[in-house]
Amino acid sequence: MRVEWHIVRVLVDTGCSTTMVERIHVNSRKVEQISEKLQTVLGPTVIKNGAWVKIEVSGKTLTCWVLLVENLSGIGVELLLGMDAVTQLGGVQIGINGKSPKFSGDGGEAITGTDRFAQKIRNEAQIGAESATSGGG
User: Were both Cys, which of 20, 56, 97, 117 would link to 80 (CB 3.0–4.6 Å)?
Assistant: First the structure.
Protein backbone atom coordinates (compact mmCIF):
# COMPACT_ATOMS: atom_id res chain seq x y z
CA MET A 1 0.00 0.00 0.00
CA ARG A 2 1.02 3.59 -0.50
CA VAL A 3 0.31 6.84 1.34
CA GLU A 4 1.01 9.93 -0.74
CA TRP A 5 3.15 7.71 -3.02
CA HIS A 6 5.25 6.33 -0.12
CA ILE A 7 5.23 2.54 0.24
CA VAL A 8 4.17 1.78 3.83
CA ARG A 9 3.69 -1.23 6.10
CA VAL A 10 0.00 -1.59 6.99
CA LEU A 11 -2.18 -3.11 9.67
CA VAL A 12 -5.83 -3.55 8.72
CA ASP A 13 -7.56 -2.84 12.05
CA THR A 14 -11.27 -3.64 12.01
CA GLY A 15 -11.50 -2.38 15.59
CA CYS A 16 -10.31 1.09 14.58
CA SER A 17 -12.91 3.53 13.22
CA THR A 18 -10.52 6.11 11.71
CA THR A 19 -7.39 5.52 9.65
CA MET A 20 -4.09 6.67 11.17
CA VAL A 21 -0.74 7.28 9.51
CA GLU A 22 2.69 8.35 10.70
CA ARG A 23 3.06 12.08 10.18
CA ILE A 24 6.40 11.70 8.38
CA HIS A 25 4.56 10.42 5.27
CA VAL A 26 2.36 13.52 4.89
CA ASN A 27 3.38 16.87 3.40
CA SER A 28 3.30 19.44 6.21
CA ARG A 29 1.18 21.81 4.06
CA LYS A 30 -1.70 19.30 4.26
CA VAL A 31 -1.70 19.06 8.07
CA GLU A 32 -4.66 20.54 9.94
CA GLN A 33 -4.75 21.10 13.69
CA ILE A 34 -7.60 19.23 15.37
CA SER A 35 -8.52 17.79 18.73
CA GLU A 36 -9.84 14.26 18.26
CA LYS A 37 -10.46 12.22 21.41
CA LEU A 38 -9.81 8.49 21.00
CA GLN A 39 -10.15 5.44 23.17
CA THR A 40 -7.18 3.15 22.56
CA VAL A 41 -6.09 -0.14 24.02
CA LEU A 42 -3.70 1.89 26.22
CA GLY A 43 -6.45 4.26 27.36
CA PRO A 44 -7.84 7.60 26.19
CA THR A 45 -5.70 9.93 24.10
CA VAL A 46 -6.09 13.11 22.04
CA ILE A 47 -4.81 13.37 18.47
CA LYS A 48 -3.81 16.92 17.54
CA ASN A 49 -3.26 16.65 13.75
CA GLY A 50 -5.12 15.28 10.76
CA ALA A 51 -4.90 15.52 6.97
CA TRP A 52 -6.55 14.53 3.71
CA VAL A 53 -4.22 12.06 1.99
CA LYS A 54 -4.19 9.76 -1.01
CA ILE A 55 -4.03 6.08 -0.08
CA GLU A 56 -3.47 3.51 -2.81
CA VAL A 57 -4.85 0.08 -1.97
CA SER A 58 -4.93 -2.83 -4.43
CA GLY A 59 -5.06 -0.50 -7.44
CA LYS A 60 -7.75 1.73 -5.91
CA THR A 61 -7.12 5.29 -4.74
CA LEU A 62 -8.87 6.72 -1.70
CA THR A 63 -8.80 10.36 -0.69
CA CYS A 64 -9.05 9.75 3.01
CA TRP A 65 -9.13 11.86 6.17
CA VAL A 66 -6.51 10.40 8.50
CA LEU A 67 -5.34 11.10 12.00
CA LEU A 68 -1.61 11.78 12.17
CA VAL A 69 0.55 10.14 14.82
CA GLU A 70 4.25 10.51 15.43
CA ASN A 71 5.10 6.83 15.61
CA LEU A 72 3.36 3.50 14.96
CA SER A 73 6.60 1.48 15.10
CA GLY A 74 5.49 -0.10 18.37
CA ILE A 75 3.09 -2.20 16.29
CA GLY A 76 5.47 -2.52 13.34
CA VAL A 77 3.54 -0.45 10.78
CA GLU A 78 3.28 3.06 9.37
CA LEU A 79 -0.42 2.98 8.44
CA LEU A 80 -3.32 1.72 10.54
CA LEU A 81 -6.12 1.17 8.03
CA GLY A 82 -9.36 1.76 9.93
CA MET A 83 -12.95 0.86 9.14
CA ASP A 84 -13.57 4.22 7.43
CA ALA A 85 -11.26 3.16 4.60
CA VAL A 86 -12.13 -0.55 4.76
CA THR A 87 -15.82 0.30 4.29
CA GLN A 88 -15.05 2.40 1.22
CA LEU A 89 -13.06 -0.53 -0.15
CA GLY A 90 -16.12 -2.79 0.18
CA GLY A 91 -14.92 -4.78 3.18
CA VAL A 92 -11.90 -6.98 3.69
CA GLN A 93 -11.12 -10.68 3.74
CA ILE A 94 -7.88 -11.98 5.21
CA GLY A 95 -6.24 -14.94 3.44
CA ILE A 96 -5.41 -18.19 5.20
CA ASN A 97 -1.78 -17.13 5.64
CA GLY A 98 -2.90 -13.90 7.36
CA LYS A 99 -0.77 -11.85 4.97
CA SER A 100 -3.06 -11.32 2.00
CA PRO A 101 -5.92 -8.91 2.67
CA LYS A 102 -8.40 -8.73 -0.19
CA PHE A 103 -10.77 -5.81 -0.57
CA SER A 104 -14.06 -6.50 -2.32
CA GLY A 105 -15.13 -3.02 -3.43
CA ASP A 106 -15.75 -2.09 -7.03
CA GLY A 107 -12.84 0.37 -7.18
CA GLY A 108 -12.68 3.92 -8.44
CA GLU A 109 -12.09 7.13 -6.55
CA ALA A 110 -13.59 7.24 -3.07
CA ILE A 111 -13.63 9.81 -0.29
CA THR A 112 -13.69 8.74 3.34
CA GLY A 113 -13.52 10.55 6.65
CA THR A 114 -15.47 11.63 9.66
CA ASP A 115 -18.85 13.26 9.06
CA ARG A 116 -17.65 16.81 9.71
CA PHE A 117 -14.81 16.60 7.21
CA ALA A 118 -16.94 14.87 4.58
CA GLN A 119 -19.44 17.71 5.04
CA LYS A 120 -16.63 20.24 4.54
CA ILE A 121 -15.82 18.71 1.14
CA ARG A 122 -19.51 18.66 0.13
CA ASN A 123 -19.83 22.33 1.09
CA GLU A 124 -16.74 23.30 -0.91
CA ALA A 125 -18.04 21.39 -3.94
CA GLN A 126 -21.43 23.12 -3.66
CA ILE A 127 -19.79 26.56 -3.40
CA GLY A 128 -17.65 25.73 -6.46
CA ALA A 129 -20.70 24.62 -8.44
CA GLU A 130 -22.63 27.76 -7.49
CA SER A 131 -19.67 29.96 -8.50
CA ALA A 132 -19.41 28.20 -11.86
CA THR A 133 -23.14 28.62 -12.47
CA SER A 134 -23.25 32.30 -11.51
CA GLY A 135 -20.04 33.11 -13.38
CA GLY A 136 -21.33 31.64 -16.63
CA GLY A 137 -24.43 33.75 -16.88
Answer: 20
* Residue 12 DSSP label: E
Cα separation, 7 vs 121, whole angstroms: 27
Q: pLDDT tens-digit profile of 76-102?
A: 899 999 999 988 888 877 767 666 667
Total Cβ atoms within 10 A of residue 134:
8
Cα 90 to Cα 117: distance, rounded to the nearest angstrom: 21
Residues 101 and 57: their CA atoms lie apart, in Å, by 10
Q: Phi-psi category of 127—alpha, beta or left, where left has phi over 0 and alpha has psi -120 to 50?
A: alpha
First to last CA, the chain: 45
Spatial CA neighbour of 64 closest among 5, 128, 18: 18
